[in-house]
Amino acid sequence: MAGRHTRYVPDRGLTTRMVTTMFFIGLLYVVFVGVLVALLGKAWPIVLVVAGGMFVAQFWFSDRIAAFSMGAREVSPQQAPELHGAVDRLCALADMPKPKVAIADSDVPNAFATGRNQQNSMVCATTGLLRRLETDELEGVLSHELSHVAHRDVAVMTIASFLGVLAGIMTRVALWGGIGRSVGRNDNNGAGLLLMLIPLVSALVYVISFLLTRLLSRYRELSADRAGALLTGRPSTLASALTKISGDMARIPTRDLRQAEPYNAFFFVPALSGESLAGLLSSHPPLQKRLDQLGRISGQLGQQG
User: Which residues belong to the annotated binding site for Zn(2+)?
Assistant: First the structure.
């Protein structure tokens, strides 16, 4: 997908996974809305209006919402010359449009990219990341993030994560839409059953969409590592940044990590405040797996050289 527009290496495995995930997410979305329409009877126009409105809002405004939520503020080349310089060099190397450049005031060392396409994208680094990394390490991280934009997997992840959000909102709409009042008037019409079925259906939809996005998220991170390392030709600097950030993450206050956790799917390295289910439910593959892949790429580039 990226090979036609940038110099980032195309990844057929990523493209296949994105198409497959979107197919199942779309199918799940149609089934979910259909079930709600069937269960809510005369309230079906509300379901369609809310579902349609939420989908449009998620697609068109999710990048701005995510950036705002994570405290990203756009900066000029005069305000952040080193960051802009790194993005300029990488965009020239990748032959892709330069995205908006932003900084988030956070001690959590991380970076992320948003945007539904290359023309509406933004790459952001935290102040904690800029303070800790050398210039070549920063370029390695930014190359990883720009590959997400080039492969368009940011947009896919944004749309895929929408269904879980919709499930929760639809449950609230259903419960606030008069079902409870109808139970009080006449429990024989099955309204009591609706109160039980709607949260159960929503919970099932959330779990399935969560697992689908997690599987895609892990692969896309490995793909971005690979594409970023091949673009710069310096996998060792990306490995160095990964090791440094992961090590420093353990010294970040738990409160700050918890605030960042909801946005892990967008981050370069996940912000994890606990270890119990981190390995199973993490949006990122294990650190060692990422380092092993970069080591193999380094060896391959050495042989080619």
Answer: 144, 148, 221
CA angle 135, 137, 142 (to 5 degrees): 95
Examine the pLDDT at 4 and tell me if it is beyond 50.
Answer: no
Domain ranges of the chain: 12-304
**pTM of the predicted protein model:** 0.81
Of 139, 145, 261, 275, which is the active-site residue? Answer: 145
What one-letter code names the amino acid at 184?
G
Question: What tokens does 284 get?
Answer: 């990122």
Give the separation between CA 14 and CA 271, rounded to whole angstroms.
24
* Angle (nearest 5°) at CA 123 between 285 and 83: 110
Residue 278 has pLDDT above 60, yes or no: no
Neighbouring CB atoms inside 10 A of 6's CB total: 23
Asked if 257 and 272 count as a contact pair (C-beta separation under 8 A), the reply is: yes
| pLDDT tens readout for residues 280-294 | 567 788 889 999 999
List pLDDT tens digits, range 152-180.
888 788 777 766 666 666 666 655 654 54
Element (H, E) at 304: helix 287-304
Cα–Cα distance measured from residue 96 to residue 151, given in angstroms and rounded to the nearest whole number: 11
**CA-to-CA distance for 228 and 297, rounded, in angstroms?**
11
Query: How much of the chain, in percent, has pLDDT values that exceed 90?
Result: 34
Euclidean distance between CA atoms 171 and 166, whole angstroms: 8
Active site residue 145: yes
* Tokens coding 196: 């039980």
Amino acid (1-letter code) at residue 82: E
Type of residue numbered 176? W
Q: In what order do the strands lie in the sheet with 122-126?
A: 72-74, 100-104, 122-126, 111-114
